[in-house]
User: What shape does this take?
Amino acid sequence: MLSRVADSLYWMSRYLERAEQTARLLDVEMQLWLDQSPEAGLGRWKFVLEALRMPAAQGPVDPTRLINMLVFSRTNASSIVSCIATARENLRHVREQCSSEMWEQLNRLYLEVIETWPEEAWMLKSHAFFQTVQEGAHLFQGITDGTMSHGEGWQFIQLGRYVERTDALAALLDTHFKRVAHPVDQAVDSGEYLGWVGLLRASVAFEAYCKAYTAEIRPLRVAEFLLLNPDFPHSVRFSVDRVNAALHIIGELTERREKLPTRIAGRMRAQLSYSQIEEVMADGAHSYLENVRGECAQIHAAIHQIYFDYSIESELAS
Amino acid sequence: MTAAAVPSPYGSSRPFVKYQFDTAYDEMFGAPGVPREYYQALHRTLVGLPPEELRKSQQAADLTFLHEGITFTVYGSKEGTERIFPNDLIPRIIPAVEWAKIEKGLTQRVTALNLFLRDIYHEGRILSEGIVPRELIYSCKHFRREMRGLNVPRDIYVSICGTDLVRLPDGNFVVLEDNLRVPSGVSYMLANRKALKRVFPKMFRDYGVSPIDHYPQALLSTLRTLAPENCAYPQDPVTVLLTPGVSNSAYFEHTFLAQQMGIELVEGRDLLVHDNVVYMRTTAGPRRVDVIYRRVDDDFLDPLCFRRDSFLGVPGLFNAYRAGNVSLANAIGTGLADDKAVYAYVPEIIRFYLSEEPILPNVPTYMLTDAAQRQHVLGNLEEMVVKAVGESGGYGMLIGPQSTKLQREEFRARIIADPRNYIAQPTLALSCAPCLIDGEVESRHIDLRPYILMGEKVTLVPGGLTRVALRRGSLVVNSSQGGGSKDTWVLRAGNADERTAQIADDVWKGLAGGPLA
Assistant: This one.
């Protein structure tokens, strides 16, 4: 497969995943906002920026402007609308490589979000907007799995989605556990309850968590669930498993089995499989999560170096 | 058109109420109200169909085009956007005997033009013998000095040619222009056929239409004959289609053809040159490329050799080409032979290389570098069509009878400033064919662009793209200027004309649901 095509599919998928993550986090935050005192609310937005991997705001925070920047701004490349537009643009360049159903769905989602939403009315409808984005992304994912050959191109789409998800999840968890260096293995009181549930909801994990551990919210269990659960699609371990699987198959298809990205992903996967939450937390979650994010960045760079951007001289020499 | 329009003899009989006749050749009617033999079955079908049926069929066909994304891009319009290429449902029919002549004439023409290109870029015999003036060639925008003395595989310069023909009032086809650079439109030819087969399956079969569906395969084998000598698998060279990218007006066609031929669709940035060998960058490492069907103009092919500001090309491509490690279709510098001033010499070119008389005549052409001819043209601008010599796609054109005084003055100034850059021709009455406009049949001007492939031998798929000037009275058929297209039915040889006359009744019965013998 042409490197350019693989590159476009990978980025398309990353951007769409990012839009979905941002929409979900903001959806949760907008609802938490309703339950909070104005002062606590302002502190919360700093947290949101950090969790979304964005630079901290300078000076006092104006929530309305901030939301606009995170949702609509075209100058912010990571706003929801920018992400969807970039995902669509990437797919448009390789339209003949995907099914027409995929193109139509992404195009439809794009047309829905670029519609002008008047500011006042938007605040009332924000939940519907975030739902549109999340559902649109889910629908696209289903259509992709159902209508495209699960060959090399599809694997690059998987790769993009799960690399993005791993990094976004790690950033979200890191932001949380920075404030709670030593999460306890007992139920939280009502003051902290909302925050922990918010974290779970931001990862669509509340219901799945309850099934695994009952509705009693214990911070250590939340950490374990989101970091190490092998079966839940929005856990770090699950995402890394998928990154590893996709890289493995791509390595087979391109006859580059022993290459760098596969090795890093294999190492990450082994580490997450055999980690215990008590050990992770004993050293502080921050260094562990920072390590996850660092390796994610290495995988990303290695994918570019091996599959997209390699130097022709070294390839021909080998 | 000068003669007064004759009102339709059908009175209120639908759907021909608005059909008009003028001095142009009418493809369907030999005389007002009397269809030519090979159009009778179609004519009966149209008269017999309930008007709603026609409208519905057109909608069904439009929907097919929409869903398949058969679009083109219009430059200059603000949204710079994709439009559906309008397709007209009523086929244009060409009897086998007429097609045989077209086929012979175009084969002759493209063979001679190819020899001409070989000669110009080597010995230049035609110049030293004074048949074609030297300064005409050297002043041509598309002449490529870099190609001098370079040998191309099998001496094939023109692998793909699209020549535009029009039919004059006397019924004869003449050549309006040749397109030897990157002729487009063939995907619409194939799409029109697909749509018509769906809408009129029965009539299609009964008419005995020559198939065209093998075009992509024929194109692929034409490209393969260009495999470089040092290619690893000469039977199966790695062939790619090079597109300028998603914003090009013919991008749909590029994706379509690549898909149909099963070859990779690449952009300039996918290719790179190392030690004069072209590679494409794949996830499995660099892969050598042998033949490039390029849909990028000469100017943009290699920034090291041609336009430096080009991002569409591949640095070093020309050197790889020179070294014989990669082949291009068409060769570089073929635009020389479709320069509209060189066009005027094509009959001489045919006589010179083939010692034959041209089978398909040219349109008389005034050379504006000649003072007397220029004076004549400037004195009669409102009757002339003036064209810039290096342009295509209907850009840079003046149509005298439909121009404003201001436009004529502008062209007068431009001609005087640079006479080599323009030619003039008398305004031609392009033939008319019935077209479906808002559920009624009206007459519109058309032309014909057959596609000629030159590999081991010259091949034409029977038919081509019939382009339609959709605006009433307009003579401009280019898609970029509001034209549309229709399917072209070349009837199979062997008494086809009589056969169609006989089946007319059967077709009608069949459509009405009656049994067929």
Observations:
- The first helix of chain A runs from residue 3 to 34.
- DSSP finds 15 helices and no strands in chain A.
- Residues 104 and 123 of chain A are 28 Å apart (CA to CA).
- Chain A has two domains: 1-148, 150-318.
